[in-house]
Amino acid sequence: MICYPSSGLPIFLSLFGIAWLFWRRFHGKDATQSLPPPQNLKPADAASAEAPYYQISPLPDFNWQTTPPLQIRPFKPKYHLTMALQKITLSELLETDSTYLERITLRRQLIKDKADAVVAANAAVGPAVSEFYEWMVGTYLPSRYPTMFQTAPATPDAGQKAGRLANLVTHEDIPLAAPTDTTESLKVLGAHIDTDFLFLLPGARPGATSEPEYKLEGFVTCFPSGFSTLAKLGLGLADIHAPVPGYGARLARSMDRFFGALAVGRAVKRLNWAVTTHADLFATEGTHLYPARDAAAGEAEPWPAEEEDVDIDCAVLRCERQTLHRLPRTRALVFAFKTYQYPLARIKEEGSGEELAVAVEGLGKGNAPGMEVYKRGVVWGRDVVRFLRA
User: Fold this and answer.
1) What interhelical angle do 353-361 and 377-389 show, nearest 10?
2) Is the pTM of this model over 0.70?
3) In angstroms, how far is CA 144 from the centroid of its own chain?
C-alpha cells in the first residue's frame, strides 16, 4: 500500500535554543541589548532599524510550478543537542515550490475543519499579528514573488475602500489592511502561505528577575508534528520545551538570551529532522515518546514501548526549515517553519540510505541520549535501518 503524499515536517520550536557563542558569532557582542523600542527612537533611527524589512530582493522570473521542493538532509552520525544556526536575510524567510497549490488546498481544509487546533491567539498578540500581516501582504510577498503576488489599488466603484494583494495562483484578492479579528488575520496568512507561524511576546518571568520570558501568544500551525500547539498557548519557552531531553540543562539559559537579544533586521534559520511512520502533515500526537509519569497523567504515550512493524511505504523522512526574526515595531518574535517530507525509498535511491541509517543509530549516542526515545527511534528504528541497508 502506497501511503505517501507530497508533504513536509514541523516540530514546534524544537531546539531553537542555540549556544550563546553561536549567537555572538553571527550578531556581535551588543546586538539589540542596547537598542531601545522603536517608539523611543528618533525618526531617522527608526527608519534605519526598519529599512531591511523594505529591502526585499525580488525573484522576478520565479516559476513556482517548475521549482522543486528543497532537498533537506540535515542528519548527522550522532545527534547532539546544539544548533547549526545560519544567518539569512529577511528576503530568505519563505521558500515556495511546486507543491504550493496542493499544500494551500490542504491548509485551507485544515483551517476549516480543525480551526481550534491550528489557529489561536491571545488578546495581547493582536498588534504583532497585524504588523506581520501588513508587512507580509503589503511588502514581502509582492516584492519577493512578483510572479505570484501583485498589489492593486482600491477600486471605489467596485466597493473597495483599501488596496489589495492579488494571489495570481488562486485568483483571489487579499486585503492589505489586517482584519480586526486577529484569528482572521492568521487564517488568511495560513491560507496563502505554505509556512506555519508562531508569535512570541516577552512577559514577566517567575521569581526575582528582570529578564523577560518569551511566551507563545498566537499561531497558525497547520502541520504540527506530534504536538498540540493549542496546549502550548500562553506557555514560556521552558514549559514549551520541557519534554525535550537535555533542554533544561543544556539550552534553557542560552535560548532565553538568544531570544531576548535577536536584533531587529536580523533573521536566522536552522534545519530539523525526524522519521515518522506515517505521512500525515497534520499530526498532533504519535511522533514522540515521553516518560511514563507523563502518560499516567494522560499527557502522552508511555515508554518503554515495543518495537513495531513499520510499513516502509508509509514512512517518511520529515524535515523542517525553521526561521526566527523580530518585528521592528511591536518587537515580537516570529518563529516559522516549513515542512518537507521524503519517502524513505527516495532517500535510499539517491544514495543517502547508509547516512540516514547511521544517523538513526546515532540518536542515542550524542549529548542527549534521550533523543532516541523522544523521537521514537526505539519503536521504528530497527525496521527503518534494516530497509535503508537492504
Assistant:
1) 150
2) yes
3) 19
